[in-house]
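=== Structure Prediction Worksheet ===
Name of assembly: unnamed complex
Input type: mixed (protein and possibly other molecules)
Chain count: three
Listed entries:
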Amino acid sequence: MLALAGCSTDEPATSASGPPAADAGTGEQSKFFVRSDYEAELAMLGATATGPAGKPWEQVLNPSTVDTASFKKAGPHKICFSNAALNNPWRQVGFKTMQAEVETHRDQISEFVHVDAEGKDQKQIADINDLLGRGCDALIISPNTTATLTPAVEAACRTGVPVVVFDRGVETTCPVTYINPIGGYGFGHVGAEFVAQKVKPGGKVLALRILPGVDVLETRWSAAKLVFDRAKVDVVGVEFTDGDPAKTKKIVDDYLQRHGTIDGVWMDAGAVAVAAVEAFQDAGKPVPPINGEDQLDFLRLWKDEGLTAIAPTYPTYQWRTPVIAALRILDGKPVSAPWKLPQPTITQENLDDYLDPQMPPLHYAMCGCTGLPGYPQRWK
Amino acid sequence: MSALSVVARRPVPGVYVALVLTAVIGWLVVALRGGALFNQATIVSLLHVAAGLGLVAVGQTLVILGGSLDLSVAYVVSLSTLVAAETMNGGNGALLPGVLLALAVSAGVGLLNGLLIARARVNAFIATLGVGLLLKGYLDSGYDGPAGSTSPGLVQTLGYQRIGPVPVSFVVMLAVAAAAWLTLSRTRFGHHLVAVGGDPEVARLSGVRTDRVLVAAHVLCSLCAGLAGVYLAARLGSGAPRVGTEGLYDLESIAAVVIGGTALAGGRGGVAGTVGGVLLLAGIDAIFNQLELDAFAKQVVRGVVIIGAVAVYARRAVRKGRW
Amino acid sequence: MVDTLRGRLPRVRAGGPLPILAILGVLLVLVAIRQPDFLAPASLMSFLGRSAPIILLAAGQYFVIVSGEFDLSVGSLVTAEVVIAARLIDGEPARTWPVVALVLASAAFVGLVNGLITTWLRVPSFITTLGMLLILVGAVYLWSDGSPKGELSEQFRRFGRRAVEGVPVLGRVPYALLVVLVLGGLAVMLMRSDFGRTLIAVGDNARAAELSGVRSGRARTIAFVLSGGAAGAAAILLGGYSGVSFQAGSGLEFTAITAVVLGGVALGGGRGSVAGAMLGALTLELLFALMNFSGVSGTVRPAVQGAIILLAVAVTAARSPSR
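=== Predicted Assembly ===
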């Protein structure tokens, strides 16, 4: 039962990360800022995706295909998934979408193994190692932290199993492909451009962030800083809310008191957008231009209150793509690497398309899940 | 009252009975579902998880035995990964300085904890919570993500090397636990620590310098957390400012200690039980992974296990705890 | 009130509300310099209203701490109750009052369970409530499938979000403030009653209290029920203030304990007043507001908070005889 090997090691090779860059205005850029990535993402915002129309989770921006013939294998397959966490509504909606996607491939997938790392790097490294011993035909990884999960992903690649990474990336190109939407710079840029346009130069903008040190969120702020510095708006505060609506309301309340008015609000994630809007309402002040995300509570408030708002998205439909990619790879069909998904923005014009009255308030509209088995009950 | 007899009275704590039962039941349930709980990959993963938590928990055992407590360990772990990885900066040349500096910084935090508790007479809960917040402020404002790069030599050895299915890090953890056991049972400091935890007043009257003993225990506790940080830096390849808090090393280490039969009030228990508690928690992790059960259900199980274990110990012990 | 206690129980010392009033005064002056219009009735009322939940939690935590125990479960209890309320109400105004009653009753029941496990099974309350914290969070995530469901009705949210309009001089008086005034007044009266004296005596020296005929287990269990009930009330106000989320109560147990300690209440029991605890909560909230007004970077805040806690407690510890 217990296979005793000799002295052995799972040690990975190390790799280096990109250099940081500095910028003026709202302060120094974080070390997550990579100008070439930033420029590439901004260029992609205007690019046209290739792939089946109406199925953005199968589309690719700037495709560059790789050959996967060496991974071709007869089905049905055992597909394993090491998940960073399931601890917020975004990941819940995404994971349910992924499970539904797996269900549509029941003929090709005999077993789908899911392991939740509960937001712990150390556990995810152990989880990946554990999965490698369980005879998976393909391994999907959603890393908890980019830098610290890189060694474990490299170790997984070396076993020869096809690895697909999505959401947050890793600092290695060893996985067969890396799937994510355009990314944090695109998200941050779209929201900040909107707010900056609506606010006059010198206007007061409050930036609300969830927490420091998460690369997806850091890149959003990096891009927003550049926009605000260029537009010469006055960023009166950059505050961390921990995703706590009560804390958010207190912060907005105090900033309103301190500055009299706030002319625009930028957020790096939509989780507390509703709380921020409520803070203005409760203080009896008009709600300034604001960005949220595609969560339905915010979209409904936007519609009902006639807010001046925009919702860049980090679509949860990206959870469908790794399953599709893994099956293509096991079929020996070429896939794009990296696989950049389109990242739609919800604006005043298309807002009504995303308002689904039957879904719960914390559901993410951009799930691409309306045609999947179990809709809508599975997501309720 | 001989402290040695107190430690030796329960050579095999009940936690090992629970551990064996959990393993057997887990193996059966997993086997029924067509899996194998004791495959090499799962064992390796389990022992890695146990190594990190174990190092912290052994240190936590020392302060709890002395009637104190350390809520700052999670931040010490994070700080230590950063100090180690930034000092090493990707080269093997600074491997030893990196490790030593990380341990020294950790010991410094322990000294601060100890002085606040023993000299300034701040309650241990508040003192270590406050120091933890100070460290959190430093980590949050100083780092916006992983930093530094661990020596490849350390990554290859402490991080990933193993002897059969047993990672080197787990052996290191066992060695630290054995050293702590020897310290507690064979040295004057160990006897004094248990005496201070049992009744500080009596200990003082019988000539124990309680302040010094407590400060030393806190330094040792932080050193253990620092060592866990060095191990995690080796595992992750870089320093990580939130690895300690994400890993919940503060509450989990306390949980492991009390599941292992050490009284939270101090004076009773030992590291052997703590190692058992760590293995039990890691074992529950492994079983839930194999069965793909919800992590939230695991939280409920953990909560019940913690309360249940301590209730069982409390039934056995006649003396009542302070908390 | 404290003076009468001092008269009856000569061993109870320090912990009066004077030091916290001084700190509160200093902070008020600093805020007034930084943000003069903060002291205008409108903003002061809104500040008091939004501080209501944490003041209630501090009062609840006070009962537990003064009896010599801990309640670490209140934060996750608040989260659990908010999530439960949202799912049960599901936007239906008619369900508001039954759900309010259910929230209060179920929260008090959780307190009762905490109390019984602590007193009957003799599990240290730190462990009981740590286990309960895990169980509550895990159970509520499991029950709601990982993401809060349903919606709070506007009628439910009114308690934490709306105010009595058009009051002379004050303008609008938040319902939350009225709730705090009533419940806070009741808490002060309770501590002046026989029960209050019993609770302090139990926390000061449980064995001595028992020898003089006090049923210490019962008193401590009631303290846990009060803490649970306060968490239920806080959940209603907090859910009303900010809506439903899994973050609703996260970390509030440490905030409440910090507030209580800041208010001059000794961990370990027997010293301090409930008014001091509530003032401690208000002081903490004012400190956070001051940091917002002064533009202290969000990442440095934990450090400021940690330093102030350590300082306040060290000063208090230096003033009072050691235990």
